[in-house]
Amino acid sequence: xxxxxxxxxxxxxHVDDCVSIEEEMRHYDDPRAASIGALKIVQKRHGxxxxxxxxxxxxxxxxxxxxxxxxxTFYNLIFRRPVGxxxxxxxxxVACFLTGYEQxxxxxxxxxxxxxxxxxxxxxxxxxxxxxxxxxxxxxxxMINDETHFDVSPQGIVxxxxxxx
Amino acid sequence: MTADTKPLTHRVDLATPLDxxxxxxxxxxxxxxxxxxxxxxxxxxxLVKEANLRGRGGAGFPTGVKWSLVPMGESAPRQKYVIxxxxxxxxxxxxxxxxxxxxxxxxxxxxxxxxYAIQASRGYVFLRxxxxxxxxxxxxAIAEARAAGYLGANVLGSPWSFDLFVHSGAGRxxxxxxxxxxxxxxxxRARPRAKPPFPQIxxxxxKPTVVNNVETLCNVPHIVLRGSEWFxxxxxxxxxxxGTKLYGVSGRVRRxxxxxxxxxxTAREILEDHAGGMTxxxxxxxxxxxxxxxxxxxxAHLDLAMDxxxxxxxxxxxxxxxxxxxxxxxxxxSVVRNLEEFFARESCGWCTPCRDGLPWSVxxxxxxxxxxxxxxDIELLEQLCRFLGPGRTxxxxxxxxxxxxxxxxxxxxHEFEAGVPKPATRxxxxxxxxxxxxx
Lengths: 165, 439
Hints:
The structure holds 2 protein chains of 2 kinds.
Chain A: H1 15-25, H2 35-46, H3 53-61, H4 65-74, E1 86-91, H5 94-98, H6 101-112, E2 125-130, E3 142-144, E4 147-149, H7 157-162
Parallel strand pairs in A: 1-2
Antiparallel strand pairs in A: 1-3, 3-4
Helix pairs in contact in A: 1-2, 2-3, 3-4
Chain B: H1 20-24, H2 30-38, H3 41-50, H4 63-68, E1 81-86, H5 96-102, H6 104-117, E2 122-127, H7 132-147, E3 163-168, H8 178-185, E4 209-213, H9 214-226, H10 228-233, E5 244-251, E6 257-262, H11 267-274, E7 284-288, H12 308-313, E8 322-327, H13 332-346, H14 352-369, H15 377-387, H16 397-411, H17 413-418, H18 423-438
Helix pairs in contact in B: 2-6, 2-9, 3-6, 5-6, 6-7, 6-9, 13-14, 13-16, 14-15, 15-16
């Protein structure tokens, strides 16, 4: 396990993640401020933040595990359960409501056989609602992982999903 | 499009934003040079005050006044911070994304000049986690600016040192409130803090901090370069407010979009001339002047100037200045239910009226939408509007949430009343429900 940072146990932070978190800590005058960044770094590796990682991050930053847990459960972009390879985030705020996000949501649900908060059995997709994505002139809008898709139509959903194998 | 009439957007290029060389060749970083070489920090603040720059994040607070509350001089704390609120998440708002993705160097320059004005030691761009492209482009711009000596120790050889970082968030709406944003930046849950003390005195890590919106900050370099009189003239006498404004329209209109226009143009001009009017076959029912937390206005209000005071006098708020247009095919209750679902979900849960009142309003609205409201529901909603209103909660989240609700009841009470069945029909509805339950 040479790629593992010695500072931690029983969850082992990947050495690259240790480096990234330390880099993140340098941006702030207090290491606690790196907690959200650290959670995002761990999430990038696993797709979500496993329970065991929480005290380890706390130890690394020198703050209580409960504080890390409090932050991890507060922010909706930190996932505390396993998610699919692709996380679909459908904007359900007012501008997309007016331009028809409900039809988009219904079509995605129909194609994947899941509802909001659920993951497909093959672990490919997780479906979540998200608040306004700041592209209201191009609604309905959704994100798949880090990519944002504009002017989405119900007819285009099948083709869009195929781009994420 | 020129720097003189459209200062904010004339250098915006979404496909390939200017790199530092291209930006410098178009007056880029000239404001940093001018401020650092020819102006005292207090002069920059004074100039911004004189220009009457008001916050573009929704509240319209005078930026220069905000800055002038920061302790200055030898006795002031060494650590001071300037934070850019780039957590654009007010439903219906899509202006800061354009500025950051299309002209990242403009914001970096703005942060440096603003940081100089309050003699900040560091700056942070608090960016919402979903703005991945903006993060990439800002990071690149910051790295270029650092390499060119605009950031780091002794900026441009001056005694002042300043560095700038992008802080990418992890979701939730509350960080848009400045004290919740500071908590979030410190790595805590984004719940608001009690004020006073105000952030200018005790903000990030207890040190003097100013928090300004992206669009607000982006005006600063232009004011420094061209002066306060020029900036006041940009609104062409249409308003007491100065400068240009990014106005936009979303909803079912012919050409939804975003335009930089003189401050104080009428809503009609924005909707009809720029957005091309409503989509064929639809009529305007009502509109939100500047985001989800502003009161609805009617078609009769379209000729009002889109500025802070005029829209306030009409009983709403200009907010972010981006119109959300509701067409006549929608029931107002469904729109308000959607808005309140958003606010209920995004409540941080810190204070009871907000945490419990907002989901309650959603349940009442959902029942009215299904035509299953109870007598007294409308009055209950009105009571919630009071109990969740200004002064009853810890921050502005719940008071903002009730703005569209109270105005919807005011203007469209008949639709709410239609959601409460008359006694006779209610008896039938109850019998039907009972029969279904048995079946």
